[in-house]
Each structure stands twice: as structure tokens, then as C-alpha cells.
Design a protein that fits this description.
Keywords: Membrane, Transmembrane, Transmembrane helix. It comes from Clostridium ganghwense. This is DMT family transporter. By secondary structure, this protein is mainly α. It has helices at about 1-25, 30-50, 70-110, 125-140. Helix 1 (about 1-25) crosses helix 3 and helix 3 (about 70-110) crosses helix 4. It is globular and about 45 Å long.
């Protein structure tokens, strides 16, 4: 079930990058990022109101965990910029390569409080295939 959900997330990301990229084509990159996040804020607010959730900020949360929103702003901004020059498929492919590299490093060293999952050399086959796929996408 979780793997199917992850595939669904991938579909949603492709749709989101496309919508956000087209919005950025109609207006300034920074203004589009602001609008995207305001609409996201309103959507989440509506969901919380419908579900009658209370805003309960727990104590002892490490401060760096609140930086995800700022990372999200840069993510959307760079996606929009790349979308204009490379399209959806290459933007997402290169992004997924970056995500894969970062996640292997985080897993291997147990960064950010994660459990350690040592890097296995068999994963190099997957990285090679991803790299070849991206080369093919860039070339053709």
C-alpha cells in the first residue's frame, strides 16, 4: 500500500510542477511562489477547519524541523525556473537523481536523526541506469 501511495505522490508531483511552472510563465517567479504557498496555506487551513483540528504546538521540537517550509519555497522556485528551460520530465528526472543521492547520504550516515542504512554497492547499478536515462533524455 505504501509503495502504491509513493507512486501516487510521484503523479501528484508531476501535476504540481506542471501547474506551478505554467503559473510562473504567466507572472514573475517569486510572485508565483508566493501565490502557490498562499493557496497551499488556505487549502491546509480549510482541511484543518473541516476536520476540527486544534493548533497544538508541542514543546521540545528541534527548531531546524521548522525549516521545511523555507526549503519548500526554494524547491518550488527552482522547479519553476527549471520547468521554463527543460520541461517537466527532465526537471523531475534530475530532481529525482538529486533526491536519490541525498537520501543515500542521509541513510548511510544516519543524518537528521534517521536510522543508519549502510550504502550497498548494488545501488550503483540503479544510479548508473538513472544516469543513462537522463543522458538519453538530454540527448534526444
Amino acid at each position: 500500500m505504501h509503495k502504491l501511495s509513493a507512486v501516487f505522490i510521484g503523479l501528484l508531483i508531476a501535476i504540481m510542477v506542471t501547474f506551478n511552472g505554467f503559473l510562473a510563465k504567466y507572472m514573475d517567479d517569486y510572485l508565483s511562489v508566493l501565490i502557490i504557498h498562499i493557496v497551499g496555506f488556505l487549502a491546509v487551513s480549510l482541511i484543518l477547519i473541516i476536520r476540527k483540528k486544534k493548533f497544538n504546538l508541542k514543546q521540545g521540537i528541534p527548531i531546524y524541523l521548522f525549516s521545511g517550509g523555507a526549503v519548500g519555497v526554494f524547491l518550488v522556485l527552482f522547479n519553476n525556473i527549471c520547468f521554463k528551460h527543460m520541461g517537466v520530465s527532465l526537471t523531475l528526472s534530475l530532481g529525482l537523481l538529486g533526491q536519490s543521492i541525498a537520501s543515500v547520504i542521509i541513510d548511510h550516515f544516519g543524518l537528521l536523526g534517521m536510522a543508519k542504512y549502510k550504502f550497498r554497492t548494488e545501488k550503483l547499478i540503479g544510479f548508473f541506469l538513472i544516469f543513462v536515462g537522463i543522458v538519453v533524455m538530454i540527448t534526444y
